[in-house]
Amino acid sequence: MLAQESPSVDSAWPVTVIEAARPAGSHTMRELLRYRDLLLILALRDLQVRYRQAIIGIAWAVIRPAATVIVFVLLFGLLDRKPVTTGVPYAATALVGLLTWQLYATLLADMSESLVKNRHMLTKVYFPRVLIPIAATAVGLVDYLVALVPALAFLLLSGIRPDWQLLLTPLWLCGVLSWSVAGGILLSAINARYRDVEHVIPFLLQLGFFASPVVYETAAIIPVQYQGLYRLNPMAVMLDGLRWSLVGAVEPNWFSVWIATGVTLTTMFFAWRIFHRLDASLVDRI
Amino acid sequence: MSGIVVCTNELGKAFPLHHRSNSTRITEGLVQLAKSIWQREPPEEFWALQDVSLNIKQGEVVGLVGRNGAGKSTLLKLLSRILHPTTGRIELHGRIGSLLEVGTGFHPELTGRENIFLNGAILGMTRQEITKKFDEIVAFAEVDKFLDMPVKRYSSGMVVRLAFSVAAYLEPEIMLVDEVLAVGDVAFQRKCLGRLQDLSTNSGRTVILVSHNPSSLATLCKRGILLEGGRVTFDGPIHETLQHYKMESGGHGRTWEGSSGDEQLRLTRAWIKLKQGNDDIWDTSSELEVGATIEIRQPVDGLIFGFRLHSDYEYELVYSLHDDDDPGIGETLNPCRLTQTWHIPPNTLASGRYRIAFDVGIAFRKQVHRQPFGELQFELQNLTGIGRRYPIQSMRGYDSLLRPNWAAERRIEPIFT
User: Fold this and answer.
1) From the CA of A191, how many Å to the nearest CA of chain B?
2) CA-based nearest residue to B230, from B71, B16, B38, B5
3) ipTM above 0.90, yes or no
């Protein structure tokens, strides 16, 4: 039974160097890729809890946006005003906006509390910690996809026949996702370090809800001279774009699309850096 | 043939002591930041580990010893990357598997099967790699019947067994084991030690082990590292390390007084004495009395109260509990002061030096007191000349220190040629 494997230091073994001066976990893409199965398992674990009773899980994903849409349809109906530009039914506009906002809010909330929620794991085993907030996106994403099916059916029933711009839908969704993940990664680390941040997040989301074209269209409400400023918010641009693709609202301002992309990428870069800077001292304090 | 797989260079870890700089509120954090601009005072720090420079070769089994708070666990956490060092550098060749606490990385809601995959994935393994080892893991842990049951319904022994099997069979190149095996039963502990031995000799894996059990360290490790106050004070053959540790742990006598434990249970007194006779003559034919007092401050279910008798060679000879004679599980004990004595009959132990270590805890729950080298120490001499008089080092049986009076009948017959 002696020496089945030759006992020499295998050059294929990964070499890890940890230096005090360097912030922890500046992971290479290759290292993160090695952990893809863990990411999958972590995500599935959250989904299992959420969709343990599939019917309730699906119903919850659908009812929440549907109920909110009804509330806003009634509200604007009573006000006798429709915050839309074209002849699109308001319910369709509101549905697309609310559903996507819900994705954003869920991702941000789930990600920001993910590290704190999983602290029993963080203090006892090691793996790239950024996997935890990333895996926390699973529930929000699946909820969104589940709700998208009846939502698209509703859009078709409302007589909306999408044009070629439907093909750009994944682009806008990708934008929403990147913007959410950037914010989520940043907030998860800050929230783990400063626990009182979690009280501020719902408040910020509330403000964001009205500061973004969720239940209205930008062009219908925001005065033209402020629209440039308004569109510095990437979420506003993505929602406008998504509406253009799905319900055929006004075409988004392409210049602001580029700005939104820049803002998102910059935020992502800094979120990643700040996360790993905080990561080094996270377990000392969590 | 053996390269260095773990290399640390002036490794240190400091934890902030200053209460406010450790605040978890951003508002206080901002106030702190503002203050630090006005008055520059260095933050108070506690150095859990300092100037640790080690080279560990492939296939070595290294025992880390030291008192509580000496920095053993901090070192393991730094090596396993859970904590980030404050100073210095670590270089690791190969994957690190760690078993730092019971149920580490286990999710209570998931089944045993799912948890095996979760733990493998935490080690950075792919599904296929885990599937290959799956049957071995299950067989070693002896949990095949409970595979599809959520881990929260496992007994703590089962959790330890599963955790150890996963870590040991996924064969990381470097394995870190903290004092976790103490929870499992003795048979399984032995099996684990065997597996660790196997990993190092047959597969060339490196094992770094923290244990408070000197006898398992002495059998498993060749090299020992002694930590004191966050620094390495000795690094060498395990027996020498244990000798150093023993000296550091302070002298022992035949009585011990103190107060060790938690708010529920405390050991306050322990002694060994001659049942009768002259206190100066400790002979193998003397009857000995071992006793201890504990304070039960809150009701206790499943009290563990007893002692281990160790030989001078770190072998555990006897483990005796207060309720060894009782059938079933003991009743709930209400707050009281409990004193228990044990008698060691004459002509039981051979001449030599012994140590007694008391164990106080609650079954399957916690251990409130443990002093690795024991509270008591005594020496027996063979003055009466009964029994084995002259220990012969090269002979087998020298270490068999029990010498019961089992010789029964003697018959003498002449030989006719």
Assistant:
1) 9
2) B71
3) no
